[in-house]
Amino acid sequence: MGFGFHMAGYDVTLNSAASGTESEKVLAPLPVLSGYGQFALTEQWAVGVRLDRFAMTYDKYNGNITSIGVDLNYQPFRHVGFGLAYRSLNIALKVTGDQLTGKFAQTFQGPLLYMNGSF
User: Fold this and answer.
1) What is the CA angle 5-48-110, rounded to 5?
2) What is the number of alpha carbons within 13 Å of residue 60 lying toward its C-beta?
3) Residue range 15-57, pLDDT digits in tens
4) 102-117 pLDDT, tens per residue?
5) Running DSSP on this structure, what letter comes out for residue 104?
6) Which CATH number characterizes residue 87's domain?
7) Is residue 25 part of a domain?
8) In this structure, are residues 13 and 21 in contact, taking their beta carbons and an 8 Å threshold?
9) Is 23 domain-assigned?
10) Which of 1, 29, 86, 112 is most solvent-facing, going by the fewest CB within 10 Å?
11) Is 21 among the domain residues?
């Protein structure tokens, strides 16, 4: 388990013929709760999982960031290994104003092949 802070800065500008231009800048320390673990199946094979989660509501802002990872590791040599993984990163933000509600959602996800070195 882990707990930490990430610094995130956002500079958002919205232009509309009906309402004109609105701009917001936010820089904030974001608390993140993490859970992760790895389990050795054999001396060469291991599986790992990780979850990082941040969620916050403040004033007119409501959002969350969720990161998930699942790994399968193969270490055929003492200092070199290989892995197959799946990663997902989901970001969601909602800003509610007097005349405007803005929503932002973004997702990155997919497989990952990697090589690692250890010493």
Assistant:
1) 80
2) 11
3) 777 767 777 777 767 788 899 999 999 999 999 999 999 888 8
4) 888 999 999 999 999 9
5) E
6) 3.90.1150.210
7) no
8) yes
9) no
10) 1
11) no
